[in-house]
Design goal:
InterPro entries: Mur-like_cat_sf (IPR036565), Mur_ligase_C (IPR004101), Mur_ligase_C_dom_sf (IPR036615), Mur_ligase_cen (IPR013221), MurCDEF_CellWall_CoF430Synth (IPR051046). One of its GO terms (molecular function) is acid-amino acid ligase activity. Keywords: ATP-binding, Ligase, Nucleotide-binding. This is UDP-N-acetylmuramoyl-tripeptide--D-alanyl-D-alanine ligase. This protein is an alpha/beta fold and 450 residues long. It has a domain of 155 residues: Mur ligase, C-terminal domain (Protein-Tyrosine Phosphatase, Chain A). 40% of the residues lie in helices and 20% in strands. It has 17 helices and 15 strands. Strand 5, helix 8 and strand 6 form a beta-alpha-beta unit. The longest helix is centred in the first third of the chain and has 34 residues.
């Protein structure tokens, strides 16, 4: 009887969601037809949210702009952004209120002139459905790696890359494709846009990028008498001129790459470099994406806990490797939804971490492969610590924390038996845990009560 009730509840929830998506999509299409805003779409396997926020910061002072909040990149999140509405979570009354408010948007006295929208693909067809009614003026593709996140839900890595690339096919006539020249698959899409006689602008740190970044490096400041990482700096060249760029509170070349994408969008919009670099100096990246957080005992936390995938973890570990600290510590949870690639990719991460970290802390069943690989790479057994939950990992880390330590925290979100949620470990280590709600990912009541 309980199983039957559970199935009925699932059917009703699915039906309710389908109806909500249909109505919100209809309302969003109506709004776009009425107000005709300029649309920037950001797609890719990783780096979408940081890139989207960077693009917004570069554009917001030049034109009335709205961006997707957090990671609103789904068939519900995108219409909510267009309508300027919040997530109603599991409240039917709140969703009914949203529908009513959404119906009234076309009659509003004003509306943003430009939208920066993030689109993502967790399952086949996610982006295809959105592209049936979204026509971007600018499309940004961040990264299409060999083993993308959520690959377990697709037939192959290539099928998810095709899904993420659909934003370029949806570009309107006269549109611009902003391509990551450091990513082979994203770069090759310029061939298709060239055939359609669309403009393309490439960015990256490699030589084939039209907008080229140079010499990314970590910036340091004193924290309790110890040099602690506080941000990044790099140079960027465009049309034979070189400009310095400074990012605060975030680490990693991947963060610099997101800034380059934002600059490329600004160039396509005709903005001045001085104003764009000034905007990036004040950029606050979203929680859980390579953010610098002050830790207890004079330590520094690199909070990259939003999610984890092979390419993102590799980039995060590379950032940790490049940092000067008393000890470099990796606190890593499972990477989920990798299917048949799971063991191999965890082993790759473990070998990379084992080659340089001073301590390795793992969380979850799959992360055991990380621990095994690190040991095989020469990391002593006494420096490897395995836990079932992020809370346990956080409490252990707190017991061994020393001044000057730099700790990278990263893992998939998970749920049920596979819950990882590495932000819980970060909260234990924060020098100011009372700031967790504003600084950490998934701190809304709907998340913390799970």
């Amino acid at each position: 009887m309980q199983i039957l009730r559970y199935k009925q509840e699932i059917i009703m929830r699915t039906f309710f969601k389908t109806v909500i998506v249909f109505i919100l999509t209809w309302e969003a299409r109506r709004v776009l037809k009425t107000w005709r805003p300029f649309i920037v779409l950001v797609s890719g396997s990783v780096g979408k949210t940081t890139t989207k926020d960077a693009v917004y910061h570069v554009l917001k002072d030049s034109i009335a702009t709205r961006k997707s909040e957090k990671s609103f990149n789904s068939e519900i999140g995108v219409p909510l952004t267009i309508l300027g509405l919040e997530n109603a979570w599991s409240s039917p009354l709140a969703w009914l209120k949203n529908i009513w408010l959404g119906f009234r948007v076309p009659r509003a006295q004003s509306y943003p002139k430009l939208l920066v929208l993030e689109v993502g693909s967790d399952h086949p067809g996610d982006i295809a459905r959105l592209m049936k009614w979204l026509t971007p003026d600018i499309a940004v593709v961040t990264c299409l790696p060999q083993v993308p996140v959520h690959v377990e839900n697709f037939e192959s890595p290539e099928s998810i890359r095709r899904e993420d690339a659909l934003v370029t096919q949806a570009l309107r006539e006269g549109g611009v494709y902003i391509a990551n020249a450091d990513d082979e698959h994203a770069y090759l899409l310029t061939d298709e846009t060239d055939k359609r006689k669309l403009r393309s602008l490439t960015y990256g740190f490699g030589r084939r990028a039209k907008l080229q970044g140079l010499s990314p490096k970590v910036r340091y400041a004193k924290n309790e008498g110890v040099d602690a990482p506080v941000g990044m700096q790099f140079d960027v060249t465009w049309e034979d001129e070189t400009f310095p760029v400074y990012l605060n509170g975030v680490l990693g070349v991947q963060s610099c790459t997101a800034a380059l994408a934002a600059l490329a969008v600004g160039i396509a919009r005709g903005l001045s470099f001085f104003r764009m670099t000034e905007a990036l100096f004040h950029l606050e990246t979203p929680p859980g994406r390579m953010r610098v957080i002050e830790g207890k005992n004079g330590s520094t936390i690199i909070d990259d806990t939003y999610n984890s995938s092979p390419i993102a973890l590799s980039a995060a570990l590379a950032a940790l490797r490049d940092i000067t600290g008393k000890r470099r510590i990796a606190m890593l949870g499972d990477m989920l939804e990798l299917g048949t690639y799971s063991e191999e990719e965890h082993w790759k991460a473990g070998r990379l971490a084992g080659a340089f970290v001073d301590e390795l802390v793992t969380v979850g069943k799959r992360a055991r492969w990380i621990a095994e690989a690190a040991k095989s790479s020469g990391l002593p057994q006494g420096c490897i610590h395995e836990f079932a939950t992020s809370d346990e990992a956080g409490e252990f880390m707190l017991s061994i924390l020393e001044r000057g330590d730099v700790i990278l925290a990263k893992g998939s979100q998970g749920g049920g038996e596979n819950i990882i949620r590495m932000e819980r470990a970060v909260k234990v280590l924060m020098a100011h845990p009372e700031e967790a709600r504003s600084k950490l990912v998934r701190q809304e009541d709907e998340w913390t009560q799970r």
